[in-house]
Amino acid sequence: MDLRKLPNLGALKVFEAAARRESFSRAAEELFVTHSAVSHQIRALEGDLGTALFTREGRRLTLTAPGKRYAEQVRAALASIAAASEALRSDDRERRLVVSLLPSFAARWLTPRVGRFIERYPELDLELQSTHTLTDFSRDDVDAVIRLGDGNYPGLFSEHLFDESFFPACAPGLNGGRLPVEPRELADMRLLRNDYQMWTAWFREAGLSGWREPRRGVLYQDASQQLQAAIDGQGVGLVRRSLAMQAILDGQLTRLFNVEVPSPFSYWMVCPEPLQEAHRVRALRDWLHDEAQQFRALYEMPRA
Known about the structure:
By secondary structure, the chain is an alpha/beta fold. It has helices spanning about 10-20, 25-30, 35-50, 65-95, 105-110, 115-120, 200-205, 225-230, 240-250, 280-300, and strands spanning about 55, 60-65, 95-100, 125-130, 145-150, 155-170, 190-195, 220, 235-240, 255, 260-270.
């Protein structure tokens, strides 16, 4: 068989749609092209084959006898190509693991650890989508999400990873290295604000009754940006433990005092129920479980 003699595959696709719909206009709508484009492709195909595929009686379109036979054969061939292509896509999709997570968590917690996942599961292609947008599993091409929440995800499988808490931290060189040793000394420090507004709860935990959220200065809506501001010496930040511990271990941040306040939310891995035991999601679950266990064992500090 000389494949060089094959007609244009685009023209065959147009012909199949026109034959099935018995209309150039409806074929054009299905393929998102113009009526004239369909008509031109059919004329070119008929010229290439040397035979008429349709008869046109006024506005009515009918397949000729050769056109009818050809339509059945083309439809079977295109269906075979589509099935083979879908099989390849399915194989590729089984290897592709798509995870959605908050940008701050992706940058400060997951990315420093992700190399161990790649080494452990070299057969999987991990795709990280850093976003604040909630995932709609019925619409979005996402296998699992990692979220900071209350664990209430109706109709979905959810697995607890670890709890979160807040504590003050700053750059070691802030104020010339003269850092506060008592919580009350924060009255003379610049406090970095964020959307979580947990300073009041921390003040209460530290015995500073009557102290309220700071009202001046930059308001950071992204926790990672606030953490970076603290690292850069812009003030004292009330940081999330999950995001700050690596910077503390690296000497970029100093934790102040031994007082922390628990977050009302924890980290959860969430996915559709049918996917929880799929190989790619099972791999993610096992790896996250191990990393979360190491995090709790190595990094968490006891509360006062």
